[in-house]
Amino acid sequence: MINLPPHRLPALVRWFPTGAPGSAALTEHVLTTEAGRWWVDSVIQPRVIAAECGDHVLLRGDPQALIPRDLRVFADRSIEAPGRFLPLIGASFDRVVPWQRMVYVKRCPAPATRPPRGVTVRGSTPRTLARSPPFRPR
Question: How far apart are CA 114 and CA 60, in angstroms?
């Protein structure tokens, strides 16, 4: 797998759902904060893309484009992928442990909360985070 710089992503991001609950939110986190990495099988017309952040990986695309050693970069991580990737994942690692997850979604819309009077909330971007002083616990 090839580590892809974030500026090459716009066309590939559509492979992941937006606004989805659960681990699918990982891609939005990586896009917004630039924390994490993007991986592809080929820079020109990729057939597989992976979003990695912390010890989690979301994998999408065509598993036929990879061979087992291509996934070894994701050893010791939790990989979420469609079922068609299971034979490839099984061939890539000595031990695969399934992990079942449940995501509860509230069906009725929740009213937007407002910050307390006198509090200003600003969005975090890489630029504002770079200017913020480091957090030091007291």
Answer: 37
Question: What Rg, from alpha-carbon coordinates, does the chain have?
Answer: 18
Residue showing tokens 């061939």: 91
pTM of the model: 0.66
State how far the Cα of 128 lies from the Cα of 12, in Å rounded to an integer.
26
Q: What single DSSP character describes residue 75? A: T
Token pair for 138: 């007291």
pLDDT tens for the 138 residues of the chain, in order = 888 877 776 566 677 767 666 777 787 778 778 788 889 898 888 899 898 988 899 898 999 999 999 999 999 899 989 899 999 999 999 988 887 777 777 777 767 677 777 777 777 777 766 666 665 555
